[in-house]
Amino acid sequence: MNYISSKENSFYKFLKKLKQKKYREKEGLFLAEGVKFLDFKREPEYLIVEEGKEINISDNLIYKKYILNKNLFKKLSSQENSQGLILVYKYNESSLEKIGDNIVVLDKVQDPGNLGTIIRITDAVGFKDIILTKGSADVYNEKTIRSSMGSIFNMNINYLPEDELMSFLKERGYKTIVTALEDDTVDYSEMGLSHKNAIIFGNEGNGVGTNIIQKSDESIKIPIYGDAESLNVAVAAGIVLYKIREKI
Q1: CA R_g for the chain
Q2: Phi-psi region of 150 (alpha: psi -120 to 50; beta: other; left: phi over 0)
Q3: Predicted confidence band of residue 1 (pLDDT cuts 50, 70, 90)
Q4: pLDDT band at residue 58, thresholds of 50, 70 and 90?
Q5: 194, 168 in Cβ contact below 8 A?
Q6: In this predicted structure, what is the pLDDT of residue 12?
Q7: Residue 104's beta-bridge partner residues?
Q8: Residue by residue, what is the 3-state secondary structure of the chain?
Q9: What does the alpha-carbon distance between residue 47 and residue 44 come to, in Å, rounded to a whole number?
């Protein structure tokens, strides 16, 4: 049995480092917490179980199982009421060369929970590709992973600098549709779609960057009928993406 009780244990130190973005990127590994992740086909590299928790793990994964004493597990966990299971997975094999005809673009979306929810929504409508501008939240942040509810495994997610993004989309023949209030903005229900579409959502506080707006083909808005000032970006993404699904 792989039992760890000391904070000086080298494997435990390795796990703790994976809570930091720079080490995740170096190792190509990320943490996912919760029994739900055992339901997915992606096989983890390691399973970390809290001492005293009874979790049903298939026989072929037993050799990857490590048990942490309660204090160490609590320090590793990112949840207040943990189920006692943390899994370590490899990064997705993502590529800009295999993106599909309908993609989601996120310009500096910074809240990990919003990012995870948008990943889940994108997967739900049947789209598999997301491009984020540099400065967006880390897709492998633990809160992002938790909010994605496993949809992270189904997605092709890439990052591009803002100055390369629009050139890339134009060269690939995408119609670029941005959520923004401009003079020629149309209601989201009236947006025009092409055979290849890139739908762009922006930062929680500032929206989509001016440079991207100016280079986009069409601006759309979601009408607000009450007194709310705006919609959460993940909510807006859900409304727009399901409307696109209806139209294509």
Answers
A1: 20
A2: left
A3: low
A4: confident
A5: no
A6: 97
A7: 130, 199
A8: CEEECCCCCHHHHHHHHCCCHHHHHHHCEEEEECHHHHHCCCCCCEEEEECCCCCCCCHHHHHHEEEECHHHHHHHCCCCCCCCEEEEEECCCCCHHHCCCEEEEEECCCCHHHHHHHHHHHHHCCCCEEEEECCCCCCCCHHHHHHHCCHHHHCEEEEECHHHHHHHHHHCCCEEEEECCCCCCEEHHHCCCCCCEEEEEEECCCECCHHHHHHCCEEEECCCCCCCCCCCHHHHHHHHHHHHHHHC
A9: 7
Asked whether residue 145 carries a pLDDT value surpassing 90, the answer given is: yes
Residue with tokens 């244990």: 9
Q: Which of 229, 220, 225 is nearest to 247 (CA)?
A: 220
Number of other CB atoms surrounding residue 151 within 10 Å:
20
- Give the type of residue at 240: V
Cα distances (angstroms) measured from residue 203 to each of 180, 206, 229, 245: 11, 5, 15, 23
**pLDDT band at 234, cuts 50/70/90?**
very high
- φ/ψ of 220, rounded to 5, equals -130, 160
Contact 106, 57 (CB under 8 A): no
